[in-house]
Design a protein that fits this description.
The protein is α/β, with parallel strands linked by helices and 220 residues long. The protein is built from 7 helices and 12 strands.
Length: 220
Amino acid sequence: MKQLFEGVFEHRGKILTRNLVPGTSVYGERLFRVQGKEYREWIPFRSKLCAAIKNGLKELPLKKGSNVLYLGVAEGTTASHLSDIVREKGILFGVDIAEKTMKKFLSICEQRQNLVPILANANNTALYAEYLEGIKIDLLYEDVAQKNQAEIFNRNAKAFLGKNAFGIIAIKAQSISSTTKPSKIFSEQEKILKKEFLIKQAINLKPFEKDHMLYLLKKK
């Protein structure tokens, strides 16, 4: 077994995280026992962050005890693996506007005490600022299918991130425009992100996702 990042491993070509809740699968992923410990397969076709790891992500700014603000948490697939990484002393606040997908995430939160569900619109940071009061956010993560993806990210960064904190955003070109070339869309989104961040790495998510880029960022 090879350790790629803290809490993230590669074993026989598969990406794994050590299961925080042994015996429990979150989204149908396979469980493995290696050297007496249980691991969950992290599937790149189900998680954009895992796709980025497969495509050469150089740094994952997470460790045991890290605090994460996750915008667009949806059903919690990727969030469950981040939960494995930050372990019991870390916490992940999962924001989503959709009640239907939040119901699935709620069931995961019942099993994982380091996950906090927040039903809110990520465009309006005031709706959930009270939940984050006094908490240092180490990583801002976003995966929302809205036209103003980068603006939402920057708005939350201003509200909750300190200088030199990290951000990761997955940008879906089709959510912004179905007629503009993806390369032009990504270029425009990068300009917006650069208002608040330094871009450390930009990763195309092919073949796992079409017309998606994932950006690793550091707050100015």
